[in-house]
Amino acid sequence: MVLRKARLYHFTIFILPALLLIAIFVLYPTFRTIFLSFIDETGKLSLNNYREVFSSRDIVNPRGFKQGFPFGALIHNLMWIGIHLPLTTFLGLILAVLLRKVKGGAIIKSVIFLGMVMPMIVGGIMIRFMFEENVGVVNMVLGFFGIQGKTWTAYPETALLSLIFGSVWLWTGFSMILYAAGLETIPRSYYEAAQLDGATPSKMFFNITIPLLKPITVVVVTMTLLWELKVFDIVYVATMGGPGGASNVLALQMYMYGFREWDFGKAAVVAVLITLSTLVAAIPMISSAGDDAL
């Protein structure tokens, strides 16, 4: 009995401060934001904020499907996921495999990972200059093929795509490093046995490497999804959501509602939407962690 009380005492002493911090800085802001999302302009509880946000063209613009950009912040985030996620995941895996046995591969990986180390604000500024008409490296490359350059972030039809493709090099280093670490956990005896059985490199890649890297892939996909759902800084410094909302995203729209229109109710609605989306995106990683624990 005395031992149990001592354990409970020590448990309380060590855990309580952490629980208090979580309650103050995580739980309270979360529930306060949810509550705020139901408060309308008159101070009453209602669904007006949700009705106005989800019917707004800033979030989903039906005309965009006929006329082109902008499609709305929610659709832009989905486009970001549809393009950025497979590219960064695939490139990270390929680079990790190719650089595994290359002399000086560690140095090359470090250079590629620089994009992930630098602040995303700096990355956004670099992306803006990359696609500039006169000084951009993209136009320099296109010039070799006789393609007329322009400021790609200044046109509605290319602004969002420029940010998406420009951010690929920033995030690829993340997936590459995780895959490189995962490759080191695969026993070489598997590959040696496969070679004795006459397996080709492509068969070993698809039948050994990819299946054994599944836990790493779950982490890479989940973390990339979380970043894509709440991407803000790159868009803020590169285009500010323009031109005409053509590169707007949910996090930036939340900022616009809250600190440009001073409508914190609508901002809270977008915050709830982003939070629910990130929770759904995190389910695969949580499930994978639970399976590993078992």
UniProtKB/TrEMBL annotation:
GO biological process, one term: transmembrane transport
Cell compartments where the protein resides: Cell membrane
A GO-annotated cellular component: plasma membrane
SUPFAM superfamilies named in the record: MetI-like
Keyword Transferase part of the UniProt annotation: no
Swiss-Prot/TrEMBL keywords: Cell membrane, Membrane, Transmembrane, Transmembrane helix, Transport
Pfam families named in the record: BPD_transp_1
Highest taxon listed in the record's lineage: Bacteria
Coiled coil: none
Residue ranges of domain ABC transmembrane type-1 in the record: 74-285
Matching InterPro entries: MetI-like, MetI-like_sf
Database matches in PROSITE patterns: ABC_TM1
Chain segments annotated as transmembrane: 7-28, 78-99, 111-131, 159-183, 204-227, 233-255, 267-286
Chief place where the protein resides: membrane
Membrane topology note: Multi-pass membrane protein
Family note: Belongs to the binding-protein-dependent transport system permease family.
Record-linked PANTHER family: BLR7065 PROTEIN, SPERMIDINE_PUTRESCINE TRANSPORT SYSTEM PERMEASE PROTEIN
Protein's name in the database: Binding-protein-dependent transport systems inner membrane component
